[in-house]
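Now for a typical sample entry:
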Amino acid sequence: MAIKSSRTDQLVSAQELLETAKTAAELRAAQAVLFPLELGMTREQMAKNIGLSVRWTCSQRTRYDRITRGEEKVPRTKREHQNRAIATLEQEAQILDEVLVGSAQGRAVVAPPLKEKENRGAAR
């Protein structure tokens, strides 16, 4: 039995995601929404074409629905969970502006460290 849905808002946003997908997971999520809406596929056909289980494809559809309604946040990648910056972009720009003034005059450029090194050996 094909999945019937009249969610045109989901259809438009899924088509945009399909065009802008950067990862295989994003592409599969868009396909899980688009296949039944555009092609009238059943859950089994949809799972077979995506290459994953029926359970996964159904959970992706419901997750996508919750995200579009604003009930759930978009999942973040591992890199987005980590802030590796020592200084803000404005602070880095200020430091570089100060350092690069000398290079305009033909002098050697020495960039200062953003974070002072700790004396770990001295504490022992």
Q: What stands out?
A: Confidence is low (pLDDT under 50) at residues 118-122.
